[in-house]
Amino acid sequence: MIKDKRMILIGLIFLSLVVEVESKPRNIHVTLAKDPRNTVVVTWQTDSSVKTGIVEYGLTSSYGSSVRSTTHTYQDDKNKIHTIHDARLTGLISGQRYHYRCGNSSDGWSGDRTFITTPEEGATFTFCVVGDTRAGSGNRQYERWGKIAEKISNHDIAFFIVNGDLVNKANTQEEWDLWFEKGEPLFSKFPIMPIVGEHDKSSEGRGSICYQSQFLLPDNGEWYSFDYGDAHFIGLNPFMEQDYATKEREWLDKDLNGTKKRWKFVYTHGLFFNICKNKVPNTYLRIHWGTLFDKHKVDIVFNSHAHAYGRSYPIECDENDRKNFFIKESYDEGRCYIITGGGGAETYPILPPDELRENGIEKALEIHHFVLVTVSSNSLHMEAKDINGNTIDSLDMFKGSLIPDSAKVIYGVSNYPNPFIANREVTKICYGLKEASDVVIKIYDLIGKLVWAYEAKAGEEGGRKGLNRVSWNGKNEEGNWVSAGGYICKIEAREEKVIRKILVK
Ligand SMILES: [Fe+2]
């Protein structure tokens, strides 16, 4: 009898612990609103016994403000009912770190968490793009996604984009729970802006019930845009059927036409250009959307779906032929398509080099990775990092019409790719000149030995007013490939000298 009572007591204690754990907030995340300078959305899940939710927030962990959530339920593919809470935090001050906690006093609170509101124009910020985080071989329990999330969380980012195929099964909540759990290093610190992939969608092409229920996004949620600092961001759903696809295109044209932001970024799971052997690009998207990206001069288009890293040449789509496109001289004249599908799912072999070029691709690697982009008023720096945090590609862009006041003659020096592989790639050294000038470019090794030199007369290629590009193939003056390592590139014009470090792999 005594033994029975003990068992009942232990059972009750266990049950109360389970109830407490389940009734506490979980899968907590922040999404940005249409104007994230002053509004964000906090979303979390609880056990179905929890009927109300509150977010307490403020500039310190003492909070001071609070808002009640909207609570709703949804059913997954195992007929389980899930409870979700969304709270819209409005009237925030731009560019501030806010503390918050969510829950309620009877069912339990989350720990203290933070997010930063978007700054006003002119501020420098970094965002991250990662795609195809879903389960697959070697990532059944989202281990790789967890490792990548931890690596990204070491960077001081403003928010991160997950570019579709977040999970493997759109309506299986256990998958989402694992995905949130493994991504916690990111969710605890930074807002997320997702877009739907084919693994996250319903049969009609919209986000699945689980996806729609867990992410409260701007506009209609299927496709949307928002501003952050000097940049305009657009997320697009490539799976909408005819009527909605037409509406989405009309919206895209109007949205791009309406923005005055200096930088424009688009992200969509749809694959415009091929990098992998077993994937077929959606060439229809080139006419459907690509021509609008050209018309409105979008700076970078992020694609996923191919599980590898890729960067296109500067591309202009052909409005008369979906299979054709034009490779332009620079990213001022053509769009940069970055394929980022290395967030956790198994990688795919990439095409051989000659086929990559035929497909408009300048760089491709079969590798798990993420992409960081740092944006300031008139320059942009992109770095792709592998799962261990090593840089695998980089790119600089400069708004040529915006010459900084501090520039004497030379401005906006960059090279890409950087690092580059000396016997397989050519790096382009890019710079602007305020006026046509004689230019000398010299590349030295780290002990100061001259490796390569180039001279341009004023007005010639390399010495023109405006943007210039000079290619170095990684050979020294004797015609031999240089060894891997760091090199110093010195650009001289009218007694001004500017230094740039070039990395050879
Ligand atoms: Fe996909």
Write a brief structural summary:
With 505 residues, the protein is an alpha+beta fold. It has helices at 2-23, 143-153, 173-182, 184-187, 209-214, 242-258, 284-295, 353-358, and strands spanning 26-32, 40-46, 54-58, 65-68, 70-75, 81-89, 97-104, 108-109, 113-116, 125-130, 159-163, 192-195, 224-228, 231-236, 263-268, 300-303, 309-312, 315-317, 325-327, 336-340, 361-365, 369-375, 379-386, 391-398, 410-416, 427-433, 439-444, 450-456, 466-472, 485-493, 496-504. It has three domains: 1-118, Sandwich (Immunoglobulin-like); 119-398, 4-Layer Sandwich (Purple Acid Phosphatase, chain A, domain 2), CATH 3.60.21; 410-504, Immunoglobulin-like (Sandwich), CATH 2.60.40.
